[in-house]
């Protein structure tokens, strides 16, 4: 059921509407603290005024550096209410990357966690050396503790030439409770999400208020989200999947339970039960971890009404785990990219009927596949996926050539299309199947091999926890297929390279069978749990 769309012209109107309709309802829960919608709106208004007082205005970027927390959520909304744009950077980034993003984005203000002072003070020094006068304000979040680090961090930032340095608490104090007067339009910049992709330096996907409004409506409607929902926010808000949990929850007036890590899954499941969570957004890596829990007493998770996954099509073993843990939950397997939030969703009733599919277009969008010349392809033919809709980003920040590669004019006047760089096929019923990134396709023995197809075969082998497939240079073949495999405890040390190759040979054409198999104890991952292939070899 797709709900009626209530249009908010600007993203901050999500918060103002929910604060008006549900003032006493809990908006955010984190680390034993809670804020009602009225309290959240009040804090946001005061911080927005503080940003304005420090020179942040229309179109200015506010960089927010920290783990999932109430302070980070407040900072995101305050940047928007100040007519600025948010940039959330994950707590795990190193100083050199943070400095790059500070300089590349031209951020006017930095709001950073005291716990991370060693990283961001170093980054601020590098940024000021490269672009003096650009960074006008630093505000330190102390909600995560480490308050003993605050004086040294403030002194360090001040000594480096930043004129307005304070704690978040002091910045909000004595500021007006009413919202600042806004001048932004819905076509203005609302946020930038930096992503490294598979290679290269970080690139910033620019999102307008219109992009965010449309995407949040589309996904909220297909999930039938309401103000009665309590949503888990464990995916970092530095990623669009985690960020939109905040945006969508506030849009509908739901409660968001923020968690910093999935490192201890049983404890997290207990908090899910205690908090009455109804929505559980996860990724395949999380579901794999849940599947490894053996002989433990699980809490009652019957209140969870939906589970979502967006990194890749859910494997049957992951679906089995979800159904066992969350007996009353509908399962939504989705596919998306930072540049357009979400592309497709698989209706729960199609999960068994369309294994391996990531579904149909999200409400209000279209997609199709094209060949190398841009011609539309028919059902079952593999080609580059093209997406059309109001959720397509404005472009990559300060990268016009890269933008022109992916964002191109459409056949109708004034429209743009997103050429995703993903190799996909669409079946006769319009259901999408992801095959590979075009730049990851391996050319070997005169044939093209999609790594995802080989990985799917490996995942069917009993005992394989996770895997990654890449192409490596080969003097005879040009490139050869190489597989990295992580085994569970029961199979570790029992399989040889030949064992894996024989089993793959039963499932794949001969040219697709990995020539090399390397066993690993673990594979490198992003903070969101996505396997990082760069550097494997």
List keywords for this structure.
537 residues; 26% strand; five-stranded parallel β-sheet; five-stranded mixed β-sheet; 30% helix; 15 helices; alpha/beta
What's the number of helices?
15
Shape from CA axes?
A: globular
- Strands, count: 27
Q: Average pLDDT across residues?
A: 90
Regions with little confidence, pLDDT below 50 for 5+ residues = none
Structural class: alpha/beta
Percent in strands? 25-35%
Global Rg: 23 Å
Oligomer: single chain
N- to C-terminal distance: 46 Å
Q: Main sheet, how many strands, which sense, barrel? A: 5 strands, parallel
Strand order of the largest sheet: 4-3-5-6-7
Helix content: 25-40%
What is the topology?
Elements: H1 12-21, E1 26-30, E2 33-36, H2 37-53, E3 61-65, H3 70-81, E4 85-89, H4 95-105, E5 109-113, H5 117-130, E6 137-141, H6 150-159, E7 164-167, H7 168-172, E8 189-195, E9 203-208, H8 209-222, E10 230-233, H9 240-252, E11 255-258, H10 265-275, E12 279-282, H11 284-291, E13 306-309, H12 316-325, E14 330-335, E15 344-346, E16 360-361, E17 366-370, E18 383-388, E19 395-396, H13 400-406, E20 407-409, E21 416-426, E22 432-437, E23 442-444, E24 447-449, H14 451-459, E25 464-474, E26 478-487, H15 497-505, E27 516-519
Parallel strand pairs: 1-11, 3-4, 3-5, 5-6, 6-7, 10-11, 12-13, 13-14, 26-27
Antiparallel strand pairs: 1-2, 8-9, 9-19, 14-15, 15-16, 17-18, 18-21, 20-21, 21-22, 23-24, 25-26
Helix pairs in contact: 1-2, 1-9, 2-3, 4-5, 5-6, 8-9, 11-12
């Amino acid at each position: 059921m797709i709900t009626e769309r209530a249009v908010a012209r600007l993203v901050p109107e999500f918060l103002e509407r929910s604060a008006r309709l549900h003032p006493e309802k809990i908006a955010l829960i984190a680390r034993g603290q809670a804020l009602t919608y009225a309290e959240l709106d009040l804090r946001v208004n005061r911080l927005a005024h503080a940003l304005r007082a420090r020179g942040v205005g229309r179109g200015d970027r506010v960089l927010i550096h920290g783990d999932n927390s109430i302070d980070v959520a407040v900072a995101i909304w305050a940047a928007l209410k100040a007519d600025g744009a948010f940039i959330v950077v994950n707590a795990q980034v190193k100083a050199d990357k943070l400095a790059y993003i500070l300089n590349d984005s031209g951020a006017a203000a930095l709001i950073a966690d005291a716990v991370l002072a060693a990283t961001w003070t170093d980054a601020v020094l590098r940024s000021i050396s490269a672009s003096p006068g650009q960074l006008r304000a630093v505000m330190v979040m102390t909600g995560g503790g480490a308050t003993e680090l605050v004086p040294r961090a403030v002194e360090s930032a001040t000594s480096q030439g930043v004129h307005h340095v304070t704690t978040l608490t002091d910045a909000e104090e004595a500021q007006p409770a009413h919202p600042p007067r806004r001048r932004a339009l819905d076509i203005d910049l609302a946020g930038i999400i930096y992503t490294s992709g598979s290679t290269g330096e970080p690139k910033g996907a620019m999102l307008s208020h219109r992009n965010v409004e449309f995407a949040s409506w589309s996904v909220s409607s297909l999930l039938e989200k309401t103000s009665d929902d309590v949503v888990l926010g464990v995916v970092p808000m530095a990623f669009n999947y985690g960020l939109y949990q905040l945006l969508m929850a506030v849009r509908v007036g739901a409660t968001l339970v923020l968690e910093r890590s999935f490192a201890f899954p049983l404890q997290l499941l207990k908090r899910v039960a205690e908090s009455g969570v109804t929505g559980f957004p996860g990724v395949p890596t999380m579901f794999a971890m849940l599947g490894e829990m053996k002989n433990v007493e699980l809490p009652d998770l019957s209140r969870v009404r939906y589970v979502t996954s967006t990194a890749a099509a859910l494997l049957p073993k992951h679906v089995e785990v979800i159904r066992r843990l969350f007996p009353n939950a509908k399962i939504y397997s989705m596919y998306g990219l930072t540049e357009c939030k979400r592309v497709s969703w698989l209706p729960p009733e199609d999960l068994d009927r369309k294994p391996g599919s990531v579904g149909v277009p999200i409400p209000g969008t279209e997609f199709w596949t094209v060949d190398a010349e841009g011609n539309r392809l028919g059902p079952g033919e593999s080609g580059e996926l093209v997406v059309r809709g109001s959720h397509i980003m404005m472009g990559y920040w300060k990268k016009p050539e890269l933008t022109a590669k992916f964002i191109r004019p459409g056949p109708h006047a004034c429209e743009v299309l997103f050429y995703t760089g993903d190799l996909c096929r669409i079946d006769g019923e319009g259901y999408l199947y992801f095959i590979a990134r075009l730049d990851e396709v391996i050319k070997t023995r005169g044939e093209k091999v999609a790594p995802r197809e080989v990985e799917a075969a490996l995942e069917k082998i009993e005992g394989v926890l996770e895997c990654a497939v890449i192409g490596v240079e080969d003097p005879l073949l040009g490139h050869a297929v190489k597989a990295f495999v992580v085994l569970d405890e029961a199979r570790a040390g029992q399989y040889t390279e030949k064992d894996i190759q024989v089993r793959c040979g039963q499932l794949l054409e001969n040219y697709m069978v990995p020539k090399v198999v390397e066993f690993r104890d673990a594979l490198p991952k992003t903070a969101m749990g996505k396997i990082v292939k760069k550097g494997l070899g």
